[in-house]
Amino acid sequence: MTSGSRTRATMADLAKAAGVSPMTVSNCFKHPHKVQESTRKKVLETAAAIGYVPNLIASSLASGNSRMIAALVPSLRNSNYANTLKGLGDYLHTRGYELLLAETDHAEREEKVLQSLLGRRPAGIVLTSGQQHSQRSLELINHSGVPVVETWHDAQPHLDMAVGFSLFDAARDIATMMVRKGLRHIGWAGHDKPESARYLQRQRGFQKAMEEAGLRSDLVFLVPESAGFAGGRLAMEALLAKEPQLQGLCCVSDVVAAGALFDCMRRGWRVPERFSVAGYGDYEIAAEVPPGLTTVNTNGAEIGRTAGEMLLQKIETGRVDAVTRRVPYQIVIRHSL
Amino acid sequence: MTSGSRTRATMADLAKAAGVSPMTVSNCFKHPHKVQESTRKKVLETAAAIGYVPNLIASSLASGNSRMIAALVPSLRNSNYANTLKGLGDYLHTRGYELLLAETDHAEREEKVLQSLLGRRPAGIVLTSGQQHSQRSLELINHSGVPVVETWHDAQPHLDMAVGFSLFDAARDIATMMVRKGLRHIGWAGHDKPESARYLQRQRGFQKAMEEAGLRSDLVFLVPESAGFAGGRLAMEALLAKEPQLQGLCCVSDVVAAGALFDCMRRGWRVPERFSVAGYGDYEIAAEVPPGLTTVNTNGAEIGRTAGEMLLQKIETGRVDAVTRRVPYQIVIRHSL
DNA sequence: CTGAAAGCGCTTACAG
DNA sequence: CTGAAAGCGCTTACAG
């Protein structure tokens, strides 16, 4: 049942059909108050009757506003980014903007992707910084003059605007919570990706909490990001070898934390009686892996929505209330500590 | 360090700078063979020097091809869809197309989203059918005349083209595998979403395998999709009550299967000696949850890439080799059965 | 409240 | 191989 009229009605067609000029049609959609009630009604009815759908490409070219926001994400598989994209997309939709998406895990590819995206003349760009951006990428964006917001970023923006939360504070808070439970020998399972400031900030937050409590802050083991759940087991093994009295593990992510919980199950250790585990991210698995992972929810959707708000404010008014915004995180208490 | 020249160089600027006509510039990019080597070289160099980025909005309007593919997905959190999007996006990028993304979980919202998207004049549409599409949605698409491919779909396309795999076959194959392991009492943990043919097809595949083996095919329990991992536990409990000798559980998804494995751990049941579990989807968790979940990999990325291929073939040549394509699935053998 | 006209930055037959 | 000209479907001052 494929068919479809290949020639869509244009604004001129609609104008003729409704017996008005094209510009009145345009006003009916863009500035309804400028046109008389009865005229508008007639135009809108005619539009529905002939199935008129405004051509936003022509609109973009004529108005200089594409109403498209380009989003670059390192990976859709990361549910944090997926949430950010959902928060962003939902917000944009309510404002009549569309999402132009590109996934780029490599910095080199990022430049090419950016080139293509920029050709589309997006009204704004959302950078989700799983990685650092190359100098050339920054130049491309800068030269384009398109407003940008960096997400999952808690420092000063590299470019224009930024939204995120304090990775440091969040890690410190949950580590402090372990201390308050009475644990004295606590390890950190991190990732060995030195170029990622994000992981380092979390680790520093953990270490700060240990120092504040007068505890060892060197029970640190870094696993490759690619290890997935297995990273939790690797960290358990390494840190237990270093400190046999280890009572708990504070993890760089829920994936690693879930891996640690699996390892506890394997060992027959009860959680949290025998061993405690803290996660980071509040992924879906956190709620489901027994006995429930205590973790920090970093509110990805809200980060996305905030990024959208900042961008549209900048696009439509030329200015923003604040170039950096923080989105609150929450510690979600379940039963793993 | 925000700046950026708000006024970007146009093709006319570049033409003037390079001392040629705009149309020669256009040809340098679109039909390089039509222009003399030396001329082309000069134009390209000048373009790089002034940082010219072709305006694809103007290009789209003039040529009638937006080179944008609109993709509608029910949820980005589902890693199957995330993979499909990645496969699609990577392919489109190599072909100079961009991805216009929208997430819609509700059929009603889908219509509004479709309206906006269609206004963008996408060259093609990818529908990822987590749900049925409303009559109105189908009409909208049909009326637009834009080529569409439905993904994760194994029957005849509702609209135009479809790409997927046999949900039935995949489920039957993995269930048959359980039978071959010598299991006699096998249950099905499915989802109670009657409108989803997708779940039903898997269930039928399971039941077919049981019938072929002369085993009971009524050990079926449906859990709400929203139950997540907990669904596995619920199904275990219900089916064990129905058949105390239950030896294995064939699951509608890896999430449910992982939940079943968690429940086995909780019970202290060794897998697969005491109990076997089969998954569906090969999500990240399948490889990581002990002892490793045997499951079916449905090749999401390949589905996305194939969708892209079909669409671009249709867009650029006006026809396709086949309106329906299947992407092979694989059974990934680990240790849960 | 309504409209004629120019223009957004490209592409595309059509000539030369 | 190169170019002048019309046109894609809108929006936007500017008049009336």
Automatic annotation (TrEMBL), chains A, B:
Keywords from the named record: DNA-binding, Transcription, Transcription regulation
Pfam families: LacI, Peripla_BP_3
Protein name as annotated: LacI family gluconate utilization system Gnt-I transcriptional repressor
UniProt KW DNA-binding keyword: yes
Signal peptide, first to last residue: none
SMART domains documented for this protein: HTH_LACI (SM00354)
Entries under SUPFAM superfamilies matching the protein: lambda repressor-like DNA-binding domains, Periplasmic binding protein-like I
Organism whose genome encodes this protein: Ottowia thiooxydans
Chain ranges of the HTH lacI-type domain: 9-63
